[in-house]
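Quick review question:
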């Protein structure tokens, strides 16, 4: 049964797709737990959503790269008697440059944020959803998880491919329990992502029709998980790209990725 005011946990809620999820879920009558590293931004978002929608927003800053972050986050929610109905695994970033040009500690942090944290959050929160007979989990993956991996963001596409397969399995395992699981796979999205990775100048060379706004991505993602779509790619152009590349022989698709990747990514170092 759908609760009167579902509680949604949004990771990476301080900007971009995460903030858009918080705003749209608040508009739908959800209360929220928001987490990210930037406390001030989370507080500003909480103030905005309470003023606009009378939303109860619990701010729990954390760095998901810390090994104990998920345990600490779940303990904080348990101490406040907060039961999560919607889990939005959104936190993420990219590590530009050649794989061996970065220290292992950089990759280890990335893997904890992009793989370990969303997996552990699902594992810890899913039993309560199953027991209550209602839940929604959206794992924010990427179109990159469907197409040949480019040089220069070595672990990014691999991590997103994992989230897609993870979501498909969870969706099948929980389809009879009232719990819907969906991998949301946006393509190029207007956000701070490319500013953080230092690729904004290169990415701005892409034509405008390749881009979606965070609001568009989130709107499609919410509709998809409500339909129980295990995987959803927002935007017609992105669905076309996925289909076209999957129809190509692997060798040809990889060549195309190699040729196009250098135009938009740093394949050497930071």
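Suggested answer, residue by residue:
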């Amino acid at each position: 049964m759908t609760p009167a005011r579902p509680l949604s946990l949004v990771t990476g809620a301080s900007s971009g797709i995460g903030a858009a999820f918080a705003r749209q879920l608040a508009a739908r009558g959800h209360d929220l737990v928001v987490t990210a590293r930037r406390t001030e931004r989370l507080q500003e978002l909480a103030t905005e959503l309470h003023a606009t929608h009378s939303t109860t927003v619990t701010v729990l800053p954390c760095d998901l790269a810390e090994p104990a972050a998920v345990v600490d986050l779940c303990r904080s929610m348990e101490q406040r008697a907060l039961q999560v109905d919607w889990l939005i695994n959104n936190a993420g970033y990219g590590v530009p440059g050649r794989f061996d040009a970065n220290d292992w500690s950089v990759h280890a942090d990335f893997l904890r944020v992009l793989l370990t944290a969303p997996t552990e959050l699902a594992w810890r929160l899913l039993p309560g959803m199953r027991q209550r007979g209602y839940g929604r989990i959206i794992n924010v993956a990427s179109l990159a998880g469907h197409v040949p991996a480019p040089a220069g963001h070595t672990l990014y596409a691999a991590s997103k491919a994992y989230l897609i397969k993870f979501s498909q399995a969870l969706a099948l395992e929980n389809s009879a329990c009232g719990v819907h699981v969906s991998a949301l796979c946006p393509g190029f999205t207007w956000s701070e992502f490319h500013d953080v990775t230092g690729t904004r100048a290169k990415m701005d060379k892409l034509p405008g029709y390749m881009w979606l706004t965070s609001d568009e991505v989130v709107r499609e993602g919410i509709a998809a998980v409500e339909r129980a779509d295990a995987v959803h790619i927002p935007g017609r152009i992105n669905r076309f790209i996925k289909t076209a590349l999957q129809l190509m022989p692997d060798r040809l698709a990889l060549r195309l990725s190699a040729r196009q990747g250098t135009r938009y990514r740093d394949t050497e170092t930071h």
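Why it works: The first helix runs from residue 16 to 27. Strands lie at 7-11, 31-35, 57-59, 86-89, 135-140, 179-184, 188-190, 211-213, 231-232.
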